[in-house]
Every structure is written in structure tokens, then in C-alpha cells.
Design brief:
It is built from eleven helices and 17 strands. The longest helix is centred in the first third of the chain and has 33 residues, at 4-36. 33% of the residues lie in helices and 22% in strands. The chain is α+β, with helices and mostly antiparallel strands. A hairpin with a 2-residue loop joins β13 (361-363) and β14 (366-368). A five-stranded antiparallel β-sheet has the order 2-1-17-16-15, sandwiched between helices. A five-stranded mixed β-sheet has the order 11-5-4-3-12. It has two domains: 41-80 and 334-435, Beta-lactamase, CATH 3.40.710.10; 100-263, no CATH class. This is D-alanyl-D-alanine carboxypeptidase/D-alanyl-D-alanine-endopeptidase (Penicillin-binding protein 4). Belongs to the peptidase S13 family. GO terms for molecular function: serine-type carboxypeptidase activity.
Length: 436
Amino acid sequence: MLNIKQKLNSSHYRYLYKSLFISIFCLILFLAGCSSSPLSKFSSVSTKEPFETSFHGLVVIDANSGKVLHSTNGDKYFIPASNVKIFTLFAAKKMLSKKAPALKYVFRNDTTYIKGTGYPASLHPYFNDSLGVFFLKKQQGISLSLPQNEIPRFGPGWAWEDYDTYFSPEINDFPLYGNVLTAYPENEKRIYPSILNDSVYVKNNPVGREEFSNTFYINQNNNDTLTIPFITAPIFTKKMLEDVLKQDVSISKVFPNSEPQILEGIETDSIAKRMMYVSDNFLAEQLLLMCSSTLSDTLSSKKTITHILENELSDLKNQPRWVDGSGLSRYNLFTPESMVHVLKKLYEELPSEKLFALFPSWNRDGTIETWEELQKPRYIFAKSGGMGNTYNLSGYLKTKSGKILIFSSMNNHFRVPSSKVREEIELILMSLWERY
């Protein structure tokens, strides 16, 4: 029979063994979870070279339940670059009809008064939309009304030296030809619009256009299709309209005080999809102007942004600093949580098939229009956004089991090639696809 001291020792050892067993079991579960968790891969990114001195955020949620699966720096502000276009898409879906408003018009006596809505597709090199031209050719007298407010040709915080680059066309109320000169490399170079033929010089020059005049330069040995923004102005819009309509167009400072009719253009989704697939900055900015045209006669990106933030997105936990439609500005500041919030709203309000069609596929090489991984169906529907020292990716992930996840990976201030960041993002997304 054990004495009291022996009983105490026996109980003490049983307690130690039990505690040790529980500790080992918990440690095994913890290590197993760490080794299998795809999100643990991200947690280590910011502590390993070459990412330890840069800034990274990631939020992943279940699209249907809203459950947060992971959040690192989710409430911190990042420069979003072209991820802003997700908010622009949201605004367009909320404020524009199925068909975009091409122009507003009023018949008065023998004159058709017209005013711009910011519609970007008229005679655009990609859309080649002539609906407005066909309508105006039927009119006997045409008067182009000036916008009620001054529309800045560039967005706030845009880089001034980009004035002649393809991705930085000017913003205006009545765009034509995408607000760019297009030079096609044929046997004899073809210029579009042709009204600018006499303004193009074949000459090796460090810039494609003079900064303050519509004087263009094309290098003699160039064999690519070039797009160079032209300077917009009401008088130049008038000349381009007269050139294509083959009739006089007058300019009016006053639009008749009558309820205008709206000429419908192409489908809004066609414009939005092109914006998302090729990250078209011009289309993004003009979409915001079109949205403001549904509120009043004042065309203003700021007016659209204020309306969306105060109404449709008043429930955002982290209100962004949102200054343009394209993301060209470094003034923009958004959090991964805000990106996921808007993506979830879109998911709840649109059928999945229609929504995912608006987002390009993505792999480590970046945004792609054709999905070539035959061994698996499309599973990443996302918008990327990059500029110097910045790369972000936000969108939807359809997992192997069919579950839909919403994610936002935002990465700023790194000094390595963007390809390194994309590789890390791909590892995480592939692990999520496999596990969930």
C-alpha cells in the first residue's frame, strides 16, 4: 500500500505527464496548421529578404459568408494605382444605365443643340462607335454647347511629363477618337483622325508631341502603331466634328433651358470591361464624368466620387482618399479592407458569370486576356495595379472545390522587380485554390 508521500508523488507525475502530452499535442496541431496554411506564406513575406523593408497588406474573405480568413495590414492605407478602377467600375454599375449616354440634345427651331456627357466611345480606335455621327448627320443645324464648368485636362497628382504618353489622354466633355492621334505603320503611314495629317512630322524626336501644341513627331524607323494624346479644346472638337460630318458646327455658350433628350451609345459594360482588361486610364476617367452627367449638368469626377462615398459607400470602415478614376495619381489612398468591401458589394449585386466576365484573368506574368492553363479552369478574376515601387492585385478566386474567395493584396515601397512580388502573390493564390 502506498503511503501518503508516494501517493502525492504519483499524482504529481500523472499531472506532469498529462500536461506534457497536451502541450506536445497542441504544438503538433500548431505546426501542422502553419505548414499547411496558405496564408502563413504571406505572413512571412514582410520578414524575408527582399521584402523586409517594404509594406505589404492582404485581406481574404469568404465571398458568401463574409468570414475573414486572413488580414494583415488590412486597415492600413496603400497607394492603389489601377486598383482604383474597381471603385470606378462600382460607380458605373450604380449610376449608369445599360447603355451609356452618348450625348444630350435639344431641338430648337432649325438647330439641334448638343452637349457632351463625357462619353468616350465616339470614333474611338477600339470601339469605332459612329452612333453619334449617324445621328448628327441627319440634323440640319448643329450647335455644340460648352460645358457649364471647366474640366481639368489632367487629374490631380498626375505626372506632368506624361502628356505625350499613350496612357495619359486629356479629359474632356466631348471626346472624339479617344482623344489620341493614332499612327498606323503601313506602307504610307496612316493618321487617325486625318484632320491631323499636316501636324505630323517624321523626325527622330525625344517626345511624341510638343507640350503646348498639336505638333506630333514619329520616328522614321518606327514600325509600331502609335497612340499620342492630342490637346483638347472646344474649337478643336468643333473642327473634328465638321470634318467628319461635312457640315458647319457652331459653338454656343448657353444650352436651351429645356429637358434634354439623351442619345444612347454602346453598352456601359463594354466600356467598363475594356477599362478593366487593358487598364485604360482614359475610359476610367470618362466613366466618372459620365456618372456625374446623371446627377446634374456639371461634369466632374469629384462630384461622382463624393456621391458614391456619401451614399453607396457610406458604410466603408476606412474612407479612402479617392481623387481620380484611373489610379494615375499617387494622392489616392485605399486600404485592402475597402477593396474587399467593394468587391463583396459587386458580388452580392451581380450574377457571378456577369461579374467575373468584367475582370481579366491573372497569373504571375500579370493581367492576361486569354486563359491558357488547360489543366484547370479560370480561377483568378482580378484587377492589378502597378506603378513605380507599387503592385496590387484585388479580385475573386474560385477555388478547386468551387468556393469563392475575395482578396486584396496591396504592396508598396518595394525596391525589387514587380515580378518578385507577383511570384509571392501567385504562391498564395495557388495555395488558396488548392486548400479551399
